[in-house]
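Morning!

This is the sequence you dropped in the shared folder:
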Amino acid sequence: MSCGDHHDTDCREVLEKVYTYLDGELDEGNCVDIRQHLDECSPCLKEYGLEQVVKQLVARHCGCDPVPEDLRAKILSRIEQVRSELTT
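The structure's back. Tokens below.
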């Protein structure tokens, strides 16, 4: 995905790291890059919002239960489908 505008951090790179960012697993330099990009890029911010809501929903309803691998695969597949729809 790309919004067509130039950014220091590419849209695709931001979206590939968004879960790691949401989990707080990125180093501070990458976090700053991601936050700056999201401040500048509304399409990525919209995508980030979607993923954040999905993650919160799963956390709220699943608690500490392990996520079945097939469910994880289905969710990731659906996210990829939504991403591709946003780029067309």
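Headline: The radius of gyration is 14 Å.

More detail when I'm at my desk.
O.
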